[in-house]
Amino acid sequence: MNLAIPRGMSRRHFLTHLAAGGAAGSAMEFIAHVSARADEVRKNQKACILIWLGGGPPSIDMWDLKPGSKNGGEFKPIDTAGEMQISEHLPKTALVMDSLALVRTMSTREADHNRGRYYMQTCYVPNPTVVHPVFGSVVSFELGSKRTGLEIPAFVAVGGSDGSPGFLGMTHAPFVVGSDGRIRDSDRKGDDPDRLDQRLSMLAVLEKNFIDSKRGGLPQAHKEVYANAVNLMTSKQMDAFRIEKEPPEAREQYGNTEFGRGLLMARRLVEVGVPFVEVDLNGWDLHQNVFTSLRDRLLPTLDTGLAALTADLKQRGLLDHTTIVCMGEFGRTPRINARVGRDHWASSWTAVIGGGGLKTGQAIGATDADGVETQGKTYLPGDIWATVAHSLGISLATVHVSKRGRPMKIANGGTPIQELIG
């Protein structure tokens, strides 16, 4: 696996304790293990898979087309299995839109990449006095610690994540992996098991002394993350990261791309009980050549992966317990610029959400004929994540407390979208 480490801990430090990670028994044993875990997930354990389209995808070319408008662009809308139309370049996704819904009146205030991502993933605008946790960390905090059988991290990010656990602590930071199933660390040449045991014993003494010195909460959080890393060495659940165990036809269904492999891994992680998985597909900052980039590269990749994930979860009986969210930090301008691109636009754009027992197959809200103005009720990131919290069974009355003692409402007090929850 290509691992990145929670902030505050070096890559080499963490990988040292994963030397034997991924050890597994026979294929039949693993299949039986996963089957049993999948039954448990279906009964008790809910999850969310966030598909993050970094850069800001153009809703008007994907989910909310405007044929006949000067802003409409080159693509045509097609009918779907739901009660909406989407882009002709998302034909596979069109077949599963009865399991997904569109929120077409997202109207957010942050049109800068970093600030927009922070806002969309934490529900709060950036504030110099506090670092808010991304929602994956919130789910890890609320659900992961309650899953006593879960031996791997409760928040996994495939393909990279800029998210922070904020005041919830390092234990709930995203565990970032690559989609190739291999550890890459040029600094590490391997470790002898005896030397590793010696290092563990030495570190245990050092950390105890450091904690006893009462220098704050970071040493204890470090010790917890370290202990989790050691536990990973013998966990059979590490096999969830090994997509090569999937039949070739399953891998082909998701697409021979890093994104497709990441989504296949996400499904495997959900099966063993991981409550939050983020899979990134970057490259959506389309200030030029928007239609060529969408048609030749981005939309085929997204279409194959999203459709396969939705269908696969449904076939396995996991879709009603797994909420899918697909969005970026904002949308893109309805107006096409001089370079045949679209610029940053946060005023009117679309987020995709589905599964999780939600009422799907519908488009919520609408924009005007040119895609500029929203019509009716608009939605903020807190409303999206409040809907996810509802689907995951996390109480919206939950209040977290920052390091400075400030109360922080879950999803920043957002309201679940009524059309989705009924």
Describe this structure in words.
The protein is α/β, with parallel strands linked by helices and 422 residues long. It has helices spanning 11-15, 27-44, 91-94, 113-122, 135-142, 193-212, 218-232, 248-254, 258-271, 290-315, 381-392, 418-421, and strands spanning 47-52, 77-79, 85-87, 100-106, 155-158, 175-177, 276-280, 322-327, 331-332, 344-345, 349-355, 363-364, 366-367, 374-375, 399-401, 407-409. Strands 6-5-7-1-8-11-4-12 form an 8-stranded mixed β-sheet, sandwiched between helices. A two-stranded antiparallel sheet has the order 2-3. A two-stranded antiparallel sheet has the order 9-10. α8 crosses α9 (258-271) and α9 (258-271) runs parallel beside α10 (290-315). The longest helix is centred in the C-terminal third of the chain and has 26 residues, at 290-315. It is globular. The protein starts with 10 loop residues before the first helix and ends with a helix. Mean pLDDT is 85; it is low at 1-34 and 182-193.
Summarize the topology.
Elements: H1 11-15, H2 27-44, E1 47-52, E2 77-79, E3 85-87, H3 91-94, E4 100-106, H4 113-122, H5 135-142, E5 155-158, E6 175-177, H6 193-212, H7 218-232, H8 248-254, H9 258-271, E7 276-280, H10 290-315, E8 322-327, E9 331-332, E10 344-345, E11 349-355, E12 363-364, E13 366-367, E14 374-375, H11 381-392, E15 399-401, E16 407-409, H12 418-421
Parallel strand pairs: 1-7, 1-8, 4-12, 5-6, 5-7
Antiparallel strand pairs: 2-3, 4-11, 8-11, 9-10, 13-14, 15-16
